[in-house]
Amino acid sequence: MKKNIYINGLGNISPQETFYQAMGETVVEAEGAFLTCQEPNYKEFIQKKLLRRMSRIVRMGLATAHKALEDANQPPLDAIISGTAWGCVKDTEKFLETIIENKEEYLTPTAFVQSTHNTVAGQIALLNHNNCYNMSYVQGNVSFESALIDAMLLFYDNKAKNILVNGIDEQTEQLGVLLERLQCAKAGERVMGEGAACFILGTEQAENTYAQLVGATMLYRPKNKESIQQSIQQVFQKSDLDFEAIDVVLTGNQDQTLEKKLFPNAVLSHYKKLCGEYPTSTAFAMALAAQLLKGNEPTKTALGIEKKEIQHILIYNNHQTINHSIILLSKVVK
After folding, report:
1. Does the pTM of the predicted model rise above 0.90?
2. What percent of the chain has pLDDT over 90?
3. CATH assignment of 5-202, among 3.40.630.40, 1.50.40.10, 3.40.47.10, 3.30.430.20
Protein backbone atom coordinates (compact mmCIF):
# COMPACT_ATOMS: atom_id res chain seq x y z
CA MET A 1 0.00 0.00 0.00
CA LYS A 2 1.43 3.35 -1.04
CA LYS A 3 2.08 5.89 1.71
CA ASN A 4 3.25 9.46 1.98
CA ILE A 5 7.01 9.58 2.60
CA TYR A 6 8.67 12.73 3.89
CA ILE A 7 12.27 13.95 4.08
CA ASN A 8 12.44 15.10 7.69
CA GLY A 9 16.18 15.61 8.03
CA LEU A 10 19.31 15.67 5.92
CA GLY A 11 23.08 15.97 6.13
CA ASN A 12 25.19 16.72 3.09
CA ILE A 13 28.97 16.76 2.60
CA SER A 14 29.95 17.79 -0.92
CA PRO A 15 32.52 19.87 -2.83
CA GLN A 16 30.31 22.86 -2.02
CA GLU A 17 29.73 24.38 1.43
CA THR A 18 26.66 22.27 2.17
CA PHE A 19 27.23 20.78 5.62
CA TYR A 20 26.72 23.70 7.99
CA GLN A 21 24.36 25.48 5.62
CA ALA A 22 22.23 24.61 2.61
CA MET A 23 24.66 26.18 0.13
CA GLY A 24 27.59 28.57 0.35
CA GLU A 25 27.56 32.05 -1.16
CA THR A 26 30.16 31.14 -3.79
CA VAL A 27 30.24 28.11 -6.07
CA VAL A 28 33.45 26.07 -5.81
CA GLU A 29 34.94 25.25 -9.20
CA ALA A 30 36.96 22.15 -10.05
CA GLU A 31 40.73 22.21 -9.97
CA GLY A 32 41.72 20.12 -12.94
CA ALA A 33 39.60 17.01 -13.39
CA PHE A 34 38.39 16.59 -9.80
CA LEU A 35 36.12 18.14 -7.19
CA THR A 36 36.93 17.37 -3.54
CA CYS A 37 34.56 17.51 -0.58
CA GLN A 38 34.65 20.33 1.95
CA GLU A 39 34.62 18.40 5.19
CA PRO A 40 33.46 19.59 8.63
CA ASN A 41 35.32 19.44 11.92
CA TYR A 42 34.64 15.82 12.82
CA LYS A 43 35.60 16.38 16.46
CA GLU A 44 32.24 18.10 16.89
CA PHE A 45 30.45 14.78 16.31
CA ILE A 46 32.88 11.92 16.92
CA GLN A 47 35.12 11.19 19.91
CA LYS A 48 38.86 11.70 19.31
CA LYS A 49 39.75 8.15 20.30
CA LEU A 50 37.33 6.81 17.69
CA LEU A 51 38.38 9.26 14.99
CA ARG A 52 41.95 7.96 14.89
CA ARG A 53 40.84 4.57 13.58
CA MET A 54 38.20 5.80 11.17
CA SER A 55 38.80 6.21 7.47
CA ARG A 56 37.67 9.32 5.66
CA ILE A 57 34.55 7.80 4.11
CA VAL A 58 33.38 6.47 7.50
CA ARG A 59 33.87 9.92 9.01
CA MET A 60 31.80 11.50 6.24
CA GLY A 61 29.07 8.89 6.66
CA LEU A 62 28.88 9.32 10.44
CA ALA A 63 28.94 13.13 10.27
CA THR A 64 26.09 13.31 7.75
CA ALA A 65 24.10 10.74 9.75
CA HIS A 66 24.60 12.80 12.92
CA LYS A 67 23.52 15.97 11.11
CA ALA A 68 20.44 14.33 9.57
CA LEU A 69 19.30 12.80 12.86
CA GLU A 70 19.79 16.09 14.66
CA ASP A 71 17.88 17.87 11.89
CA ALA A 72 14.97 15.44 12.31
CA ASN A 73 14.98 15.72 16.13
CA GLN A 74 16.45 12.24 16.76
CA PRO A 75 13.60 9.92 15.74
CA PRO A 76 13.94 6.20 16.58
CA LEU A 77 15.19 4.42 13.45
CA ASP A 78 13.60 1.28 12.08
CA ALA A 79 16.20 0.77 9.34
CA ILE A 80 19.60 2.01 8.14
CA ILE A 81 20.14 1.64 4.39
CA SER A 82 23.28 2.71 2.58
CA GLY A 83 24.11 3.00 -1.11
CA THR A 84 27.72 3.05 -2.31
CA ALA A 85 29.43 1.87 -5.47
CA TRP A 86 33.10 2.39 -4.69
CA GLY A 87 32.84 1.70 -0.96
CA CYS A 88 35.80 2.25 1.35
CA VAL A 89 38.36 2.84 -1.39
CA LYS A 90 41.20 4.01 0.85
CA ASP A 91 40.84 1.04 3.20
CA THR A 92 40.67 -1.33 0.23
CA GLU A 93 43.93 0.14 -1.07
CA LYS A 94 45.55 -0.36 2.34
CA PHE A 95 44.33 -3.95 2.49
CA LEU A 96 45.72 -4.77 -0.94
CA GLU A 97 49.04 -3.08 -0.15
CA THR A 98 49.28 -5.11 3.07
CA ILE A 99 48.76 -8.34 1.12
CA ILE A 100 51.67 -7.45 -1.16
CA GLU A 101 53.97 -6.25 1.62
CA ASN A 102 53.37 -9.37 3.75
CA LYS A 103 53.51 -11.73 0.76
CA GLU A 104 49.96 -12.89 1.51
CA GLU A 105 50.91 -14.01 5.03
CA TYR A 106 50.16 -12.80 8.58
CA LEU A 107 47.22 -10.60 7.66
CA THR A 108 44.97 -9.21 10.40
CA PRO A 109 41.21 -9.45 9.83
CA THR A 110 40.79 -5.78 10.80
CA ALA A 111 42.17 -4.53 7.48
CA PHE A 112 39.67 -6.62 5.56
CA VAL A 113 36.69 -5.74 7.78
CA GLN A 114 37.36 -2.01 7.41
CA SER A 115 37.57 -2.30 3.61
CA THR A 116 34.10 -3.78 3.05
CA HIS A 117 31.27 -1.75 1.52
CA ASN A 118 28.93 -2.12 4.51
CA THR A 119 31.39 -0.51 6.97
CA VAL A 120 29.65 2.89 6.91
CA ALA A 121 26.15 1.53 7.63
CA GLY A 122 27.59 -0.72 10.34
CA GLN A 123 29.41 2.14 12.07
CA ILE A 124 26.29 4.31 12.02
CA ALA A 125 24.38 1.50 13.74
CA LEU A 126 27.13 0.89 16.31
CA LEU A 127 27.50 4.52 17.35
CA ASN A 128 23.72 4.97 17.58
CA HIS A 129 23.24 1.66 19.47
CA ASN A 130 20.85 0.52 16.79
CA ASN A 131 20.26 -3.14 15.95
CA CYS A 132 17.50 -2.62 13.37
CA TYR A 133 17.39 -3.68 9.71
CA ASN A 134 20.77 -2.74 8.21
CA MET A 135 21.52 -3.02 4.50
CA SER A 136 24.14 -1.75 2.06
CA TYR A 137 23.52 -1.67 -1.69
CA VAL A 138 26.47 -1.93 -4.06
CA GLN A 139 24.74 -1.56 -7.41
CA GLY A 140 27.11 0.66 -9.35
CA ASN A 141 25.50 3.86 -10.59
CA VAL A 142 22.09 3.01 -9.10
CA SER A 143 23.35 2.14 -5.60
CA PHE A 144 21.56 5.09 -3.98
CA GLU A 145 18.36 4.46 -5.95
CA SER A 146 18.41 0.81 -4.82
CA ALA A 147 18.68 1.93 -1.18
CA LEU A 148 15.90 4.48 -1.68
CA ILE A 149 13.51 1.98 -3.26
CA ASP A 150 14.22 -0.55 -0.50
CA ALA A 151 13.25 2.11 2.07
CA MET A 152 10.05 2.91 0.16
CA LEU A 153 9.06 -0.77 0.09
CA LEU A 154 9.58 -1.04 3.85
CA PHE A 155 7.25 1.92 4.34
CA TYR A 156 4.64 0.45 1.99
CA ASP A 157 4.75 -2.88 3.87
CA ASN A 158 4.22 -1.11 7.23
CA LYS A 159 7.61 -2.33 8.49
CA ALA A 160 9.05 1.08 9.32
CA LYS A 161 8.14 4.61 10.38
CA ASN A 162 11.58 6.24 10.21
CA ILE A 163 14.49 5.16 8.00
CA LEU A 164 17.99 6.52 7.49
CA VAL A 165 19.10 6.36 3.83
CA ASN A 166 22.42 7.58 2.50
CA GLY A 167 24.44 7.69 -0.70
CA ILE A 168 28.21 7.95 -0.34
CA ASP A 169 31.37 7.57 -2.44
CA GLU A 170 34.90 8.88 -1.97
CA GLN A 171 37.83 9.81 -4.18
CA THR A 172 41.44 8.87 -3.41
CA GLU A 173 44.70 9.80 -5.06
CA GLN A 174 45.22 6.34 -6.53
CA LEU A 175 41.63 6.13 -7.75
CA GLY A 176 42.11 9.51 -9.40
CA VAL A 177 45.17 8.22 -11.29
CA LEU A 178 43.17 5.23 -12.53
CA LEU A 179 40.23 7.38 -13.62
CA GLU A 180 42.53 9.65 -15.61
CA ARG A 181 44.29 6.70 -17.25
CA LEU A 182 40.91 5.27 -18.21
CA GLN A 183 39.98 8.71 -19.56
CA CYS A 184 37.00 8.85 -17.22
CA ALA A 185 38.30 12.11 -15.73
CA LYS A 186 39.24 14.98 -18.03
CA ALA A 187 39.78 18.59 -16.99
CA GLY A 188 37.11 20.81 -18.49
CA GLU A 189 35.20 17.90 -20.02
CA ARG A 190 34.37 15.28 -17.39
CA VAL A 191 35.00 16.34 -13.82
CA MET A 192 34.90 13.53 -11.25
CA GLY A 193 33.64 14.18 -7.75
CA GLU A 194 32.62 12.64 -4.44
CA GLY A 195 30.11 13.17 -1.70
CA ALA A 196 28.01 11.90 1.19
CA ALA A 197 24.32 12.72 1.57
CA CYS A 198 22.11 11.29 4.30
CA PHE A 199 18.33 11.51 4.72
CA ILE A 200 15.87 10.71 7.47
CA LEU A 201 12.68 9.52 5.80
CA GLY A 202 9.44 9.21 7.72
CA THR A 203 5.75 8.48 7.20
CA GLU A 204 4.72 11.54 9.20
CA GLN A 205 5.58 15.20 8.75
CA ALA A 206 7.90 16.76 11.29
CA GLU A 207 8.64 20.32 12.30
CA ASN A 208 11.57 20.51 9.89
CA THR A 209 10.15 18.53 6.94
CA TYR A 210 11.84 19.45 3.67
CA ALA A 211 9.82 17.69 0.98
CA GLN A 212 7.78 14.65 0.05
CA LEU A 213 9.39 11.73 -1.75
CA VAL A 214 6.73 10.97 -4.36
CA GLY A 215 8.35 8.23 -6.43
CA ALA A 216 11.55 6.60 -7.67
CA THR A 217 12.47 4.07 -10.30
CA MET A 218 15.45 2.86 -12.34
CA LEU A 219 16.05 1.22 -15.69
CA TYR A 220 18.79 -1.00 -17.02
CA ARG A 221 19.69 -0.75 -20.71
CA PRO A 222 16.36 0.60 -21.98
CA LYS A 223 15.68 -0.23 -25.63
CA ASN A 224 14.98 3.35 -26.66
CA LYS A 225 13.85 6.76 -25.44
CA GLU A 226 10.22 5.65 -25.62
CA SER A 227 10.81 3.02 -22.92
CA ILE A 228 12.42 5.67 -20.73
CA GLN A 229 9.42 7.92 -21.26
CA GLN A 230 7.07 5.08 -20.34
CA SER A 231 8.92 4.49 -17.07
CA ILE A 232 8.70 8.19 -16.20
CA GLN A 233 4.99 8.15 -17.06
CA GLN A 234 4.41 5.22 -14.71
CA VAL A 235 5.97 7.16 -11.82
CA PHE A 236 3.74 10.14 -12.62
CA GLN A 237 0.59 8.03 -12.93
CA LYS A 238 1.16 6.49 -9.51
CA SER A 239 1.62 9.99 -8.11
CA ASP A 240 -1.41 11.55 -9.85
CA LEU A 241 0.79 14.11 -11.60
CA ASP A 242 1.37 15.04 -15.23
CA PHE A 243 4.51 16.25 -16.99
CA GLU A 244 3.28 19.86 -17.01
CA ALA A 245 3.37 19.89 -13.21
CA ILE A 246 7.18 19.70 -13.08
CA ASP A 247 8.79 23.04 -12.29
CA VAL A 248 12.46 21.99 -12.18
CA VAL A 249 14.40 19.10 -13.67
CA LEU A 250 17.74 18.41 -12.02
CA THR A 251 19.62 16.46 -14.65
CA GLY A 252 22.95 14.68 -14.52
CA ASN A 253 23.17 14.47 -18.30
CA GLN A 254 25.10 16.57 -20.77
CA ASP A 255 22.64 15.66 -23.52
CA GLN A 256 19.32 17.04 -22.30
CA THR A 257 17.27 16.39 -25.44
CA LEU A 258 14.83 14.03 -23.73
CA GLU A 259 14.32 16.32 -20.74
CA LYS A 260 13.58 19.29 -23.01
CA LYS A 261 11.12 17.24 -25.03
CA LEU A 262 9.18 15.85 -22.05
CA PHE A 263 9.29 18.95 -19.84
CA PRO A 264 9.30 22.03 -22.12
CA ASN A 265 7.89 24.28 -19.38
CA ALA A 266 10.35 23.21 -16.67
CA VAL A 267 13.64 24.83 -15.73
CA LEU A 268 16.55 22.49 -16.47
CA SER A 269 19.68 22.57 -14.32
CA HIS A 270 22.79 20.36 -14.53
CA TYR A 271 23.52 19.48 -10.90
CA LYS A 272 26.87 17.74 -11.56
CA LYS A 273 28.52 21.11 -12.15
CA LEU A 274 28.40 21.43 -8.35
CA CYS A 275 29.45 17.92 -7.31
CA GLY A 276 31.16 16.26 -10.27
CA GLU A 277 30.55 12.78 -11.63
CA TYR A 278 30.39 9.85 -9.19
CA PRO A 279 28.07 6.83 -8.81
CA THR A 280 25.84 8.13 -6.01
CA SER A 281 25.62 11.74 -7.20
CA THR A 282 21.81 11.50 -7.25
CA ALA A 283 21.91 11.57 -3.44
CA PHE A 284 23.51 15.01 -3.71
CA ALA A 285 20.84 16.00 -6.24
CA MET A 286 18.09 14.87 -3.87
CA ALA A 287 19.58 17.01 -1.09
CA LEU A 288 19.56 20.02 -3.44
CA ALA A 289 15.97 19.28 -4.48
CA ALA A 290 14.87 19.10 -0.84
CA GLN A 291 16.48 22.49 -0.15
CA LEU A 292 14.86 24.00 -3.25
CA LEU A 293 11.42 22.81 -2.19
CA LYS A 294 11.98 24.37 1.20
CA GLY A 295 12.68 27.67 -0.53
CA ASN A 296 16.44 28.02 -0.03
CA GLU A 297 17.60 30.96 -2.15
CA PRO A 298 21.39 30.25 -2.24
CA THR A 299 20.64 26.80 -3.68
CA LYS A 300 18.51 28.40 -6.39
CA THR A 301 21.31 30.82 -7.23
CA ALA A 302 23.96 28.08 -7.38
CA LEU A 303 21.80 26.08 -9.81
CA GLY A 304 20.86 29.12 -11.87
CA ILE A 305 17.15 28.79 -11.12
CA GLU A 306 15.09 32.00 -11.17
CA LYS A 307 11.64 30.41 -10.84
CA LYS A 308 9.95 31.73 -7.71
CA GLU A 309 7.44 29.00 -6.91
CA ILE A 310 8.68 25.40 -7.05
CA GLN A 311 6.16 22.66 -6.33
CA HIS A 312 7.54 19.55 -8.05
CA ILE A 313 11.10 18.51 -8.96
CA LEU A 314 12.27 15.62 -11.11
CA ILE A 315 15.80 14.20 -10.81
CA TYR A 316 16.94 12.31 -13.90
CA ASN A 317 20.35 10.75 -14.42
CA ASN A 318 21.72 8.21 -16.85
CA HIS A 319 25.17 6.66 -16.98
CA GLN A 320 26.47 5.87 -20.47
CA THR A 321 22.86 5.05 -21.51
CA ILE A 322 23.07 1.89 -19.34
CA ASN A 323 21.66 2.82 -15.92
CA HIS A 324 18.84 5.35 -15.75
CA SER A 325 17.33 6.67 -12.53
CA ILE A 326 14.31 8.85 -11.84
CA ILE A 327 13.39 10.46 -8.50
CA LEU A 328 10.34 12.68 -7.99
CA LEU A 329 9.92 15.11 -5.09
CA SER A 330 7.10 17.50 -4.20
CA LYS A 331 6.63 20.44 -1.89
CA VAL A 332 4.93 19.74 1.42
CA VAL A 333 1.78 21.58 2.39
CA LYS A 334 1.92 22.24 6.11
Report:
1. yes
2. 70
3. 3.40.47.10
